[in-house]
Amino acid sequence: SEDAVDVLLKAAQEYGSDLTIVALGPLTNIATALQRDRTTLQDQ
Questions:
Q1: What pLDDT, in 10s, does the model give residues 1-43?
Q2: How far apart are CA 28 and CA 15, in angstroms?
Q3: Widest Cα–Cα separation across the chain
Q4: Burial degree of 33 (CB within 10 A; 0-12, 13-18, 19+)
Q5: Total structural domains in the chain?
Q6: What sign has the CA pseudo-torsion 16, 13, 23, 42?
Q7: What pLDDT does 42 receive?
Q8: Which domain holds residue 13?
Q9: Most buried one in 1, 30, 38, 44, CB count within 10 A?
Q10: pTM (two decimals)
Q11: What own/partner pairs with CB < 8 Å and gap ≥ 24 does 38-42 have?
Q12: Binning pLDDT at 50, 70 and 90, where does residue 44 land?
């Protein structure tokens, strides 16, 4: 099963710079996604 980080990275791959992330709490999942695959989350 996919965790939140996998979903975030998949969405970033699919939508690229059209994706907007609104973080309302701790940034743990975003930080983990950056550690796993920084290039996917870079602004295109």
A1: 899 999 999 999 999 999 999 999 999 999 999 999 999 988 7
A2: 21
A3: 28
A4: buried
A5: 1
A6: negative
A7: 87
A8: 4-41
A9: 30
A10: 0.86
A11: 40/9, 40/12, 40/13, 41/9, 41/12
A12: low
